[in-house]
């Protein structure tokens, strides 16, 4: 009887869960995804920016020198000391009232020295053939490396036509393997940054960018109350120094010491026993400490509402996005962009990461093998350089010997010079 009563409720719950699951499947949307497979050229427009100046670089469609999957190709920057610019149209979308996920992978195969590896989202009309560094963008995200000091992870957010960089100092990966960079922005203006699917940082647009004045500020007019107690412990007023404490000597004569038999007071003076530490001496007297009953903690300047703050509930909303672009300068080229994703589902983004990085061990093995080949080649070239240097050194030594005898020829008669030179030439080097 009880089972029959519970069955309709159970079936109703199952129906609700199924509806909830299906509803979420419908709501979740992949706005743009690029794996650079067949037909990618029809989706991307290469810019002519800097081409007339001879400073525009080209992209190669390749998986790179070492890859977890050789068939999984991306776009690799080629030609050193060049500007690279390419973009693709995306279905126009807004992140209003939904989560925004921007994700892509990049592999720095080169010793990059100085250059960017970031991605841009653009709004409004963009002439893709002229897309470049001066083209306005709504969002920029990704690594920027220069020398050994700059290993920055850029997050630049555009608000009302002005670009605001994140205030935090975030570092990117610097090895030569594939890494995923993910930025998640939610309707409550909170964000998360993931690298290879693991959260690296999080926070809020309100606190980590100087977009709006801070909601709270410190009250600069506040002063610490005169009776504010910051001392956690105080002297025990009931602990009184014992009478005669200060008269206790630090050392006393050794009671076990005896005057030596040979001691002659007329000649040696009055004998005095050596001193030893006084076991009754306890050092300088200090009263005991007790917990301060009036302790209030360290005083801090209170925070108050900022009169200049005016909230914008749409702070998190970007201008409608229409394009995604790669625009970077690199001293040394060789970065492989791939797996670009714009969606509203963080779980799907994680699935893409898991799929691609499932071949991480194969990629590592390929990299290690390539490193062995590179080091062997460098050692071979170094050995050839050493041998060439030694050959030139010997030639210079022979030339100097020949010049020395020529000088002697100029100073003496030619017959003596020739005799000396023939003898020396037949003498082996030491």
UniProtKB/TrEMBL annotation:
Keyword terms of this UniProt record: Calcium, Chaperone, Disulfide bond, Endoplasmic reticulum, Lectin, Metal-binding, Repeat, Signal, Zinc
Cleaved signal peptide residues: 1-28
Organism name: Lithospermum erythrorhizon
TM ranges: none
Pfam families xref list: Calreticulin (PF00262)
Biased composition (Basic and acidic residues): 361-422
Region (Disordered) residue spans: 361-430
Entry's Gene Ontology BP terms: ERAD pathway; protein folding
S-S pairs: 114-146
Cellular localisation: Endoplasmic reticulum lumen
Listed name of the protein: Calreticulin
A GO molecular-function descriptor: carbohydrate binding
């Amino acid at each position: 009887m009880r089972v029959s009563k519970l069955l309709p409720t159970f079936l109703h719950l199952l129906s609700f869960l199924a509806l909830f699951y299906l509803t979420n499947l419908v709501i979740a949307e992949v706005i743009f995804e690029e794996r650079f497979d067949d037909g990618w050229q029809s989706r991307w427009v290469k810019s002519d920016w800097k081409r007339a100046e001879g400073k525009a670089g080209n992209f190669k469609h390749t998986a790179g020198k070492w890859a977890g999957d050789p068939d999984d190709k991306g776009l690799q920057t080629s030609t050193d000391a060049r500007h690279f610019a390419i973009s693709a149209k995306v279905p126009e979308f807004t992140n209003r009232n939904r989560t925004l996920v921007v994700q892509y992978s990049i592999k720095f195969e080169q010793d990059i020295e100085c250059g960017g590896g970031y991605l841009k989202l653009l709004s409004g009309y963009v002439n893709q053939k002229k897309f470049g560094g001066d083209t306005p963008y709504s969002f920029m995200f990704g690594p920027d490396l220069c020398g050994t000091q700059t290993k920055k992870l850029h997050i630049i957010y555009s608000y009302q036509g002005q670009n605001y960089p994140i205030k935090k100092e975030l570092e990117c990966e610097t090895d030569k393997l594939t890494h995923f960079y993910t930025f998640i922005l939610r309707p409550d203006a909170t964000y998360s940054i993931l690298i290879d699917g693991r959260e690296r940082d999080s926070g809020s647009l309100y606190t980590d960018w100087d977009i709006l004045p801070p909601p709270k500020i410190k009250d600069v007019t506040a002063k610490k109350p005169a009776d504010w107690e910051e001392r956690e412990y105080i002297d025990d007023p009931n602990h009184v120094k014992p009478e005669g404490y200060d008269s206790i000597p630090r050392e006393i004569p050794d009671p076990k010491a005896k005057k030596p038999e040979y001691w002659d007071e007329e000649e040696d003076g009055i004998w005095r026993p050596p001193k030893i530490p006084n076991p009754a001496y306890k050092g300088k007297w200090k009263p005991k400490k007790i917990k301060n009953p009036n302790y209030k903690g360290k005083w801090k300047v209170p925070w108050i509402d900022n009169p200049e703050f005016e909230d914008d509930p749409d702070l998190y909303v970007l201008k409608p996005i229409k394009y995604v672009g790669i625009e970077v300068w690199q001293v040394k080229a060789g970065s492989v962009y791939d797996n670009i994703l714009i969606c509203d589902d963080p779980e799907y983004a994680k699935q893409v990461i898991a799929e691609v990085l499932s071949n991480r061990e194969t990629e590592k093995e390929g990299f290690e093998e390539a490193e062995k080949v590179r080091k062997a080649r460098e050692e071979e070239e170094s050995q050839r350089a050493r041998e060439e240097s030694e050959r030139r050194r010997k030639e210079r030594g022979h030339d100097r010997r020949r010049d020395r005898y020529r000088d002697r020829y100029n100073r003496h008669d030619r017959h003596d010079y020739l005799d000396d030179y023939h003898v020396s030439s037949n003498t082996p080097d030491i």
